[in-house]
Please model this.
Amino acid sequence: MRQKVLIVLLLLLMTALSYAGSPAGPMIDFPVLKHDLGTVGQEDKPEYFFRFSNKGDQDLIIEKVSAS
Model:
């Protein structure tokens, strides 16, 4: 469940940054937008790392990321 929340947060971050407007400035790019973790038990601790890059012409600064 925690991983699904993290995925939603990352997608929201990506959407918010994509609406930032002009092509100038930082531009985050996620080549893979979702990942199915399958069935996860209560004691399981699955991991998946979303890769992203800055396709913009200025530094991309991510100041705070959290999951609930």
Observations:
- Helices lie at 2-18.
- The beta strands are 28-29, 53-54.
